[in-house]
Amino acid sequence: MKAIVCTALACALGSAHAAQVAMEDQSQLKVPPASQAPVFMPPAQSELPDNAFGKMVRDGYALFVDTQRLAPAYVGNGMKCSNCHLDQGRMAHSAPLWGAYPMYPAYRKKNDKVNTYAERIQGCFQFSMNGKAPAADSHEISVLSVYSYWLASKAQIGVEPPGRGYPDVAQPAGGYDIARGKQVYQQQCALCHGADGEGQKVADDYVMPPLWGKDSYNWGAGMHRINTAASFIKYNMPLGKPGSLSDQQAWDVAAYINKHERPQDPRLVEGSVEKTRLKFHANDGVNLYGQTVEGVLVGQGTGK
Ligand code: HEC
Ligand code: HEC
User: What is the pTM (predicted TM-score) of this model?
Assistant: First the structure.
């Protein structure tokens, strides 16, 4: 796993509070295709009270949109939470926080386990942010939970709101094609995300997030699944033109992105990509981890 560069203080805090969380159960959400139903409206930032509660919400918001800079001890790549949960976690069909918060704790029949909201966020730190999970009672998890609670104000507990998650986009009958995906990428994505998926930086800060390579999400993240990435892309990309790609284009370009190397799955089993594939990837949606594509074994990691 990538070494986490941080100041002495942040490292000390990190080791004191970082939790070893069992992350075997990052099972994917079952989200229906998008419907025309009206979506939930979270409160406006201007409605925040000027008191201790308002301050916690603001701290959670700040951490959500500037994660790498504000929580370096827990982030091992160049990402911010809001890179994949658009419009500060408010946008429908972009796994909005108001759609998530009322649905936890979530019971999973498959392994007879309950996932708390804290555990769900910890999962995004370990995989999407390629970092370490802050402890459930840490400042980080607390303020992110308070921010989510506030966005979900007046939502119904335990009732899945339309607009939650990334809507399912069924795999096209003919499957997907990586070569076609490369063309979509070059024509519609490279301008912002870079010819080699590297994103764009201003000084040390990414202004366009990377899609693969050492500063991207790792091989355990939900986005590494082609089906999940296709859903995200169809409803959120190209930025400013959501819904403009066909399902086929979304699948093709999702496969192209997810055949590229990224940081290793932190759950790597005995150093073996094959064992890790069997344990964690064989039944995890559609993904290329541990498969040979164009003569190359996918899933070797970026080694940093
Ligand atoms: C690389 C993209 C990416 C980043 C960065 C990311 N997430 Fe996520 N997040 C996802 C995906 C994908 C899912 C849904 C996984 C699925 O469908 O299985 C998800 C799910 C969630 C959920 C549950 C949604 C629901 O409706 O149940 C929450 C809450 C969440 N993320 C919070 C965060 C927080 C907080 C951060 C920053 C610490 C973060 N995410 C960073 C991609 C990302
Ligand atoms: C106009 C610039 C622009 C274009 C064009 C664009 N993106 Fe993005 N993309 C962004 C930005 C900016 C974000 C992060 C959003 C945020 O932080 O609010 C993002 C986020 C993403 C993410 C999730 C974050 C990550 O780094 O993994 C993926 C995946 C993605 N884009 C894929 C694509 C694909 C595929 C295309 C082409 C079909 C595309 N984008 C076109 C600007 C763009």
Answer: 0.93
